[in-house]
Design a protein that fits this description.
The structure holds 3 protein chains of 3 kinds. By secondary structure, chain A is mainly alpha-helical. Chain A has 16 helices and no strands. Chain B contains 15 helices and no strands. Chain B is flat. The two termini of chain B are 16 Å apart. The N terminus of chain B is likely disordered. Chain C is α/β, with parallel strands linked by helices. The N terminus of chain C is likely disordered. At the A-C interface, helix 15 of A face helix 3, helix 16 and helix 17 of C.
């Protein structure tokens, strides 16, 4: 214990946490793709491995495999039992007229056809495309704020904390919070009227042409804090010398952002944008449910909200399951696209 | 957290001749001004809940006059928010613990492995995130009711824990992959340590800030869930606070102020926890994802 | 162990221990369902109801009724769970999927209840002849095929309240309310020309539209068409629906300009109480009459039924009928107990309490509804008209949800009424196997 303790102390020193210059140099020198794999040597799962190329004997390899089990088994078993198996079952019901608890006849691809021909479904796909247009705002806003706070602003810590506050609000409560703010006689319109800008007052969530941009802004409000925290971390990994060099060479703030900062935090940017894009398909339900209920008409409904509508409100479980299959396909598409774009971008 | 002092030499303001101190003040004021839109909605929610109906109808923007707690009283009593706060604490607390317990070893394993099984683990975890909740929650509810495990806060907490493991695995895996390099692991192995020793004595201590962040975020997300709680919980005495607060929104709508009061009560613990631990939480996030 | 780690372990295990203890305590009782035993060998009846969320003060009434039931049937304990209407759908669906849940549940009659027929017992065989005599709303409770899944509990009727002062201000006789549709529209025009908003309402939550639809459809659907509709055999795209939807759309100009963004609950009522509009359509909740009188002065509030359309197939009547009722679930272990509960709730004693404590119009013909309020008396009298009927029980709830979502769009003309009716018909057909089989 004593010897190991001493060794540990040594190890702690050399392993820096966060953005020390040595760490930053290592990272800057080793740009990695979207899927981080530890750069270097092989699995150390075998307990009695000796460094070197020789493979351990079969028995030790099996012992090694056995040793991994307690690490990943609880997670895998729980995940499968709680989510993956029920989800697989649920998705498979897309081929049936699924009525949980009673007779559910096989209907083949009719649920898929129904959706493909449904004008409502088409409208919802258009909605999703529209929501994706929020990506620039959801990325640029936290990025610019993070960069701004990074530059000799003493109250940066306090500001970051206050901006992070909305992250704590759950999506269902977000809708309840913003209903009186966006109502026709709500906070926004009343303020506009009081400040003489009454002409700008609008039915923010009751006009189909305004509801989606409004939701994009509400989501921006809710997520900026998280983005600022994550981007700030990424910014610490950029070598200060690079930015100084750029400034000395006469680069303005915008150019510094474009040519030094953005490339420097490429990976974080890609990850953030991927999650925002995935969020458009997977996590809009809570907000839409409590703010607009998909309305006016269907102009603010997202796919996951429509899955809920079909499944619970309409009781068409099979259709809901088929819609989830479509949704899963789109999500996989986005994840793959993000991975490909990420690879290509980081290798520029 | 120190803001890296990046100098922006040659900026327009400097060229204009505005004093450096002046610019500093301007920048700080601007930064504080930036906070206003993020804090104001909370302020508005609170003052709305403290107004009488009359006051709210006539003076939307001003301070409450008089200040009344009747909305809070009403909300507290009619939805049994006191009991539900405790229920949420239990379910979310268990969820946070379970998330950490399940994801930490797996993240450590992923950080030191290159075998193909790693893709299975990461893929399974990613799957959990990519499937809309409504699709698996009903079949899972059927499973649970066969085992007579519905209406049970322990089980709900466990489910929260499992559904939040992607966050834990991702953050911790990325962090450990960077912070504990293979050289260190190798050195430890050479010194006679087993992987579990490396995990417990090196990785976990180093990862404490990230683990706290994972626990905190898992807690917050479990606290805010409505769908899973609505399906799994039957008795009113078991309801979580977010479920209770949103149950006010019935077909026959009720007063905005009552909803606001209920929303504040259910958000308050989150905000308090956050205010206390925000430094650690944000640090853990930045540390865990800084690259 | 390193210090920070040890600290984490200590506090972590302390937290874990506390949480587990608390959880164990809180989770005692496990899953609640019809199997759970109450205290001292009593049988527990689990009731899921949404009606007590319809207005303030109804929850104590529910508790009182439960207490009276337990006093009469001491072998039972009632476990009453109030669930919001919107969450009831989710929970009942999950319960049906799992085959376990409450014994008794709030459910609307007719087609709305038939959507949950997989979880409910048909109750025709339990109803005795004297029940049929006493529970007069039973006549309209059956779903397609005649199955009764919900015993109606209370009655509603659609009426308009009007502000006599505003009528006078516009030069209209405050003691004469319009009886025909032409008179009604004319009065709206006169009010509008005097700068008064004729109708207080909002289309954001969508109910305003369907509250007009029911009384107007009633008038134009013959008994044969009504029967076909209630048997789920009449399309929503039929001319009678198109016509009524056009009538409603034509009311648009007589609402406030931003009505599409206002809600029925509660903007419509609040604006009427504040004197901002002359008339409001209501399905009483007689308590709303009382609130109007309180806000505007008893002498200033008048009540009249929905005016008669040209081409109405009936003498003047009111759209009145069964409000939500009670159903018994398929998995209940104590059908007798559940039926006793419903019987009690339908009995004169309970129904009298409903009126005296909650102003809920009873179903039981033997109950008494004393009132000294002339406006309320006129409502009660109008409701007893034998010609009264309703067709609302033929709408699946999710089909109505489409109409509700598009109400604002239709009243502003952004979406055509025929396209919405088409969407509703599409869903109605998709739901056929589920509702009718």
């Amino acid at each position: 214990m004593g010897g190991a303790g001493g060794g540990e102390a040594e190890l702690r020193e050399t392993t820096s946490i966060g953005g020390g210059p040595r760490q930053a140099m290592t990272r800057a020198a080793n740009p990695v793709g979207v899927d981080a794999e530890p750069v270097s040597s092989d699995s150390l799962t075998s307990t009695a491995s000796s460094p070197g190329p020789s493979r351990p004997p079969r028995r030790t390899r099996w012992l090694g495999r056995l040793a991994t089990v307690p690490y990943i088994a609880p997670l895998l078993i729980s995940a499968v039992a709680v989510v993956v198996a029920p989800a697989a079952f649920g998705l498979s019901r897309s081929l049936f007229n699924w009525q949980p608890g009673t007779n559910s006849p096989f209907t083949g691809i009719s649920n898929f056809k129904l959706l493909a021909e449904s004008s409502t479904f088409h409208a919802i796909l258009v909605n999703e495309g529209y929501y994706l247009l929020g990506l620039p705002i959801w990325t640029l806003l936290p990025l610019l704020i993070a960069v701004f706070l990074f530059t000799r602003v003493r109250v940066a810590g306090l500001v970051r904390m206050l901006i992070f506050l909305p992250v704590v609000v759950s999506p269902a409560l977000l809708g309840i919070m913003f209903t009186p703010i966006l109502a026709p006689e709500g906070l926004v319109n009343t303020t506009l009227q009081k400040t003489g800008l009454g002409g700008l007052a609008r039915p923010w969530i009751d006009d189909p042409s305004l509801v989606k941009p409004t939701i994009i802004l509400v989501l921006a409000w809710a997520n900026v804090g998280l983005g600022v925290a994550i981007f700030t971390a990424a910014l610490t990994s950029i070598q200060p010398d690079l930015l100084d060099a750029a400034a000395v060479n006469g680069a303005g703030s915008w150019q510094r952002i474009r040519y030094v900062i953005v490339p420097g935090i490429k990976r974080t940017l890609i990850l953030w944008m991927t999650f925002q894009a995935l969020g458009v398909f997977l996590w809009l339900f809570g907000l839409i449910y409590s703010l607009t209920a998909g309305g006016p008409g269907n102009s603010s409904a997202s796919i996951d909200y429509d899955v809920f509508t079909n499944t619970i409100s309409n009781g068409l479980f099979g259709v809901g399951a088929a819609e989830s299959v479509y949704l899963l396909a789109m999500v996989i598409l986005i994840a793959v696209a993000a991975w490909v774009i990420g690879r290509r971008w980081s290798h520029d | 957290m120190t803001s890296g002092a990046i100098r922006l030499r040659g900026s327009a303001a400097e060229r204009r001749g505005v004093g450096r101190r002046g610019r500093l003040v301007l920048r700080n004021l601007g930064a504080l001004g930036l906070c206003i839109p993020f804090v104001y909605p909370f302020y508005f929610l609170i003052i709305s809940a403290l107004k009488t109906t009359q006051n709210y109808a006539t003076n939307r923007l001003g301070l409450p006059h008089p200040v009344v707690f009747s909305q809070f009283n009403s909300a507290w009593r009619s939805a049994s928010l006191g009991q539900s706060l405790l229920n949420s604490a239990i379910a979310a607390g268990i969820g946070a613990v379970v998330t950490v317990v399940l994801s930490a070893p797996a993240a450590d394993w992923c950080a030191r492995t290159k075998s193909r099984t790693k893709n299975i683990v990461l893929g399974t975890v990613a799957c959990m995130w990519m499937i809309p909740t409504i699709i698996w929650v009903i079949p899972m509810f059927v499973e649970l009711s066969r085992a007579h495990l519905t209406d049970n806060l322990l089980v709900l907490g466990f489910i929260y824990g499992v559904t939040n493991t992607p966050l834990g695995v991702y953050l911790l895996y990325a962090y450990l992959a960077d912070a504990v390099s293979p050289d260190i692991r190798e050195a430890a192995i050479v010194a006679g340590a087993k992987p579990r020793h490396v995990f417990v004595r090196i990785c976990l201590p180093i990862a404490v800030p990230v683990l706290s962040t994972i626990a905190a975020l898992a807690f917050v997300w479990a606290w805010g869930d409505v769908l899973i709680a609505a399906v799994l919980l039957q008795s009113q005495s078991k309801w979580t606070v977010t479920l209770a607060a949103t149950s006010f929104v019935s077909r026959y709508g009720i007063s905005i102020q009552l909803e606001a009061a209920a929303a504040i009560i259910s958000m308050l613990p989150m905000i308090v926890i956050f205010a206390i631990g925000q430094r650690g939480i944000i640090k853990g996030l930045t540390v865990g994802s800084g690259r | 162990m390193r210090t920070p780690y040890r600290r984490l372990m200590k506090s972590g295990s302390a937290v874990l221990a506390t949480v587990l203890c608390a959880a164990a305590a809180a989770s005692c009782g496990g899953s609640s369902g019809s199997h759970s035993q109450g205290h001292a060998g009593k049988k527990t009846l689990v009731v899921w109801q949404f009606w007590s969320g319809f207005a303030a003060g109804l929850q104590p009434l529910q508790k009182k009724l439960d207490a009276e039931f337990e006093a009469k049937y001491p072998q039972y304990t009632v476990n009453d769970v109030p669930i919001s209407f919107t969450q009831m759908g989710t929970k009942l669906t999950a319960a049906i999927a799992a085959g376990t849940g409450p014994n008794i549940v709030s459910v609307f009659p007719g087609v709305a209840g038939a959507a949950y027929r997989n979880g409910l017992i048909p109750l025709q065989s339990y109803i005795t002849a004297s029940d049929r005599k006493n529970w007069r709303l039973l006549a309209e409770a059956a779903g397609p095929g005649g199955s009764i899944l919900s015993i109606p509990w209370s009655e509603y009727g659609y009426f308009l309240y009007y502000n006599k002062k505003l009528f006078k201000k516009a030069g209209l006789n405050p003691n004469v309310a319009p009886t025909t549709w032409q008179q009604f529209i004319k009065d709206c025009q006169v009010l509008k020309s005097h700068g008064i908003t004729a109708l207080s309402g909002g289309f954001k939550d969508g109910y305003e539209w369907e509250w007009w639809a029911y009384p107007l459809l009633d008038q134009l659907m013959s008994p044969a068409v009504t029967k076909s509709w209630l048997d789920y055999n009449y399309p929503i795209t039929s001319p009678v629906f198109q016509k009524v939807w056009s009538y409603i759309k034509a009311l648009g100009p007589y609402y406030a300009k931003d009505a599409f963004g206002l809600t029925l609950y509660n903007d419509a009522y609040n604006n009427f109480y504040a004197g901002k509009a002359a008339m409001v359509l209501d399905a009483p909740l007689v308590s709303n009459v009382v609130a109007s009188q309180k806000a505007l002065g008893t002498a200033n509030v008048g009540v009249f039924p929905v005016p008669r359309l040209p081409g109405s197939l009936y003498p003047p009547f009111v759209d009145a009928g069964p409000n939500s009722g009670w159903g018994i679930t398929r998995w209940t272990t104590d059908t007798r107990g559940a039926w006793d509960y419903i019987n009690f709730m339908e009995g004169a004693k309970a129904q009298n309490l409903m009126w005296s404590l909650g102003h809920i119009i009873p179903n039981n013909v033997q109950s008494v509804t004393p009132t000294s309020n002339p406006a309320i008396q006129s409502i009660l009298t109008a409701i007893k008209n034998p010609v009264n009927h309703t067709i609302y029980v033929g709408f699946p709830v999710s089909v109505l949800a489409i109409n509700e979502r598009y109400a604002g769009e239709m009243i502003t003309g952004r979406t055509s009424t025929s396209s919405v009716l088409k969407m509703m018909e599409q869903l109605r057909l998709q739901l056929r196997p589920k509702i009718v089989g």
